[in-house]
Amino acid sequence: MNEPIVNQIRDQPRLLRELCGREGEVESWVKGAGKSTPRRVWLVGCGDMFFAASAAALHLQLCHALDVRAMRSMDLRWCRQTLLPQDWVVAASVSGRTPRTLEALRLARRSGARVLAISDDPAAPLAREAGEVLILGSAPVQLLRQGIYPGYATQVPQTRTFLAALQVFLAAGAHAFDVRLCLNEIPERVERFLDPAEQAAMKIAAQWCNAPLARVTVLASGPTYPLAQYAAAKCLEYAVPAHAQCIEEFNHLEMFVEDERSAVLALAPDSQSLQRWEELRGSYRLLGSRCAEWSIGEGGVLPAVEPLCRPFVVAVAVQWTAVALARALGRDLTRWVGGVRTGEIHPLSQRNVRGSRICDSADDFGDDART
């Protein structure tokens, strides 16, 4: 059976190599004509784009001490008074039509900040309003321009956009501060890991789905936490109940309701997170939870790669995990949302995503905006 999501996962090394070949274009796009080094760079988006922004910002903060911050599109309104003309805002929306990301872009422009856009549609509102846009080339423009929001009733290949956006966010934040990253190593690392990750994900799904599965909790910490959020989102696309949690907060919250119906997936691509997971794993098993991990070291499947490549290989691991779980639970992988209530969910999603009022004035932010 032709499963679009599988084709998208396997196509990612090609797309990442293509983006590496456009490194000069990314640098020119970031630098602009006569633009000075920014005070701060804000990476902005919704959903997958926010998760990619968070992963990129954390890497640039922790590994290069750069003042790069990730922000949900809607939340930028609360920071608008701190935005200065010396700030840059990089706003990403694959369709270029995400209302809250458009709102964030407008707020940034109103504050005098320089605005850059990442999209797949050069004619979309986000690209038109930003003026400066970089096209990912990850999804067909003709599908993005259809009336139904891409990724719901219409089949649009968007799985590969996460890694593409992550790479561009990293490059944009680094170039803004005259730091160059070794991005050329990423496509090879991803390609080499595709088959081992698929096989490991199938084993996890086979172990987990031989009994009723009520929920999956994806655990991570530090720079890997955005990947846990992404993992939960990929599972939810195929109606696999899942959510993300910091590994420490899990012990204070969800641990109290863990039982044999639940599963815990730990993302441990480094020695620190692996050590903590090994300390905790026995307790979850005593509660009856099904446990698995994507980890390094003896018995682990994740390759021990440099920090720059870690979010990319972890993303591939969780993509395959979502696919394997969906197959094992009988979901329809030929549909973008292979859930059990798509007929009800599509109209609700349309109303919530498309029907929201966008704030246009300071009055819309309440008294706090004027203090």
Describe this structure in a few short sentences:
The protein has 371 residues and is of the alpha/beta class.
Any overview of this molecule?
By secondary structure, the chain is α/β, with parallel strands linked by helices. The chain is built from 13 helices and nine strands. Strand 4 (114-119), helix 5 and strand 5 form a beta-alpha-beta unit. Helix 2 packs across helix 7 (161-176) and helix 3 (48-64) packs antiparallel against helix 9 (225-237).
Can you tag this structure with a few keywords?
2 domains, Rossmann fold, about 15% strand, single chain, alpha/beta, about 375 residues, globular, four-stranded parallel beta sheet
Count the DSSP helices. 13
| Name of the CATH architecture of the largest domain | 3-Layer(aba) Sandwich
What level of helicity do the residues show?
40-55%
Give the tally of structural domains: 2
CATH superfamily assignment of the largest domain? Glucose-6-phosphate isomerase like protein, domain 1
**Helix/sheet category:** alpha/beta
Secondary-structure map:
Layout: H1 4-21, H2 23-31, E1 40-45, H3 48-64, E2 68-72, E3 87-92, H4 99-110, E4 114-119, H5 125-130, E5 133-135, H6 141-144, H7 161-176, H8 185-208, E6 215-220, H9 225-237, E7 242-246, H10 247-252, E8 262-268, H11 271-286, E9 290-295, H12 310-328, H13 342-354
Parallel strand pairs: 1-2, 1-3, 3-4, 4-5, 6-7, 6-8, 8-9
Helix pairs in contact: 1-7, 1-8, 2-7, 3-7, 3-9, 8-12, 9-12
